[in-house]
Design brief:
The chain has helices at about 20-30, 60-65, 115-130, 140-150, 165-170, 175-180, 200-205, 245-255, 270-280, 295-300, 320-325, 340-345, 360-370, 370-380, 385-390, 390-405, and strands spanning about 5-10, 35-40, 55-60, 70-75, 80-85, 100, 135-140, 160, 190, 210, 230-235, 260-265, 290, 305-310, 330-335, 350-355. The protein contains 16 helices and 16 strands. The longest helix is centred in the first third of the chain and has 19 residues, at about 115-130. The chain is globular. By secondary structure, the chain is α/β, with parallel strands linked by helices. The protein folds into two domains: about 5-55 and about 90-215 and about 390-405, Glycogen Phosphorylase B (Rossmann fold), CATH 3.40.50; about 215-385, Rossmann fold (3-Layer(aba) Sandwich). Helix content is about 35%, strand content about 15%. It starts with 5 loop residues before the first strand and ends in a 20-residue tail after the last helix. The protein has a seven-stranded parallel sheet with strand order 6-2-1-7-8-9-10, sandwiched between helices. Helix 8 (about 245-255) runs parallel beside helix 9 and helix 8 crosses helix 13 (about 360-370).
Length: about 425
């Protein structure tokens, strides 16, 4: 389709995180709508989500040697080298979803972060000059600022997406001042919830619009109606923010009363070793599993007896939404900047606990384990999130915003979102 509008997604990599999965799903939707789509990334991660219609595939060093000039050296987040090829990945004539890499190679890295930031911005600009996209969509703090800076003078509208707690994302003085200076020029500043808007100065707030994350179709099948397994599950990157250590400690405390229950934490990350050591120190190796990430996580957790999110901070947590959509009894920390609180009404469709409080988390888990009536009622009401986060509704909002941005029309007024999506009197 030679006249198709070209949209470039600018993210660090396609690693297995909520933002990346949301962007891949949105890219797939836009590709199906007839847009030309390209991912501009700095890195290729070891464990990335598969992208339908991808024009690239990662290859080994040995295969790269055989491919010669048809193999491209790219960089991982840890600055080690990897290789991709674009040759023969798709059938002839299929455009596919493209990818280009804009990372700073290890030999170009400097000790000063500001210098590296500038180099990355220059490389991003070079990519956009060559690609000539009609629209750029970026996510996460540094990428958002670099997208705005690198597009100056190119006459390319930019939509920036704020996916986490902006007070943390823009905590550094450099990023905050850069955001204040550049975001008023954005076609739109997309938020996941209204509470995020209060962080931004008025000129930026004028550009904000709330578009929720879309539920993946795999989580929209009918909720499981049988006897649920005696398994407590959690899904997410094994890092400090997800605070799985808190979950392990709370589970260890309740295990003597409920010895036939298991804990399964899906995900990978730099906290794996610490979590493994903690499980060993607490003497619960036989009842805790860390199986890594799974391709079909919806199937893995479908019959689980409980889902728990222990994060210190979240925007709108996709894993919590997905578990609720499938009718799994859910517990979440009431963490900033308010995503869980917006979808969970404590005791109505799930349970909320304070951040970092192991004892209160244990109490919440026992409330479900010891009260089948509460568990059943929360499980029955949780799938109501489908009405708000259904892909048809979310992508309709994105389609409208993209059309306005491409036509350089004013974005719609910021969406007025209730502080609490669900109330017990509904």
């Amino acid at each position: 389709m030679p006249d198709a509008k070209h949209i470039a997604f600018y993210v660090s990599s396609l690693t297995r995180g909520g933002t990346e999965r949301t962007f891949i799903n949105l890219a797939q939707h836009l590709y199906d709508q007839g847009y030309r789509v390209t991912f501009v990334t700095s890195f290729i991660s070891r464990d990335e989500y598969p992208v339908p219609h991808a024009t690239w595939r990662e290859v080994s060093k040995e295969e790269a040697k055989l491919l010669g000039e048809d193999a491209v050296e790219v960089m991982r987040p840890d600055e080690s080298a990897s290789f991709v090829t674009f040759k023969g990945v798709l059938p002839a004539g299929e455009r596919g979803i493209d990818r280009v890499f804009s990372g700073v190679s290890p030999r170009e890295q400097r000790k000063l972060r500001t210098v590296n930031f500038s180099k990355r911005t220059q490389l991003a600009r070079k990519c956009f000059e060559e690609l000539k996209p009609d629209l750029i969509i970026s996510a996460n703090a540094k990428n958002n600022v670099m997208a705005m800076l690198s597009s100056i003078g190119l006459d390319i509208p930019v939509i920036v997406c704020v996916v986490a707690n902006p007070a943390t994302e823009y905590a550094s003085r450099q990023l905050y001042l850069s955001m204040v200076a550049t975001f008023p020029r954005a076609a739109a500043v997309v938020l996941q919830l209204e509470a995020q808007a209060s962080f931004f100065p008025p000129k930026v707030r004028e550009r904000t619009i709330v578009i929720r994350n879309a539920l993946d179709e795999t989580f929209l099948k009918p909720p499981y109606e049988g006897e649920r397994e005696k398994t407590i599950v959690s899904v997410g990157t094994l890092n400090h923010n997800k605070n799985h250590q808190m979950l392990v400690k709370a589970f260890a405390r309740l295990l003597p009363k409920y010895p036939d229950w298991r804990l399964v934490i899906y995900g990978e990350g730099n906290e794996r070793r610490h979590l493994t050591q903690l499980v060993g120190a607490l003497g619960i190796r036989g009842t805790v599993e860390l199986p890594g990430m799974r391709e079909n996580i919806a199937e893995e957790i479908y019959k689980a007896g409980m889902f728990v999110l222990c994060s210190n901070e979240e925007g709108m947590p996709m894993t919590l939404l997905e578990a609720m959509a499938m009718g799994i009894p859910c517990i979440s920390t009431d963490c900033p900047c308010g995503g869980p609180r917006e979808i969970v009404k404590d005791g109505f469709n799930g349970l909320l606990t304070p951040v970092g409080d192991v004892a209160r988390m244990e109490t919440a888990m026992i409330r479900f384990l010891g009260n089948r009536g509460l568990t059943k009622s929360c499980s029955g009401r949780a799938p109501e999130v489908r009405k708000i986060f259904h892909p048809d509704l979310v992508y309709a909002a994105w389609d409208d915003l993209i059309r306005r941005s491409l036509n350089q029309e004013e974005a719609p007024e910021p969406v007025q979102v209730q502080a609490q999506v669900f109330r017990s009197d509904e």
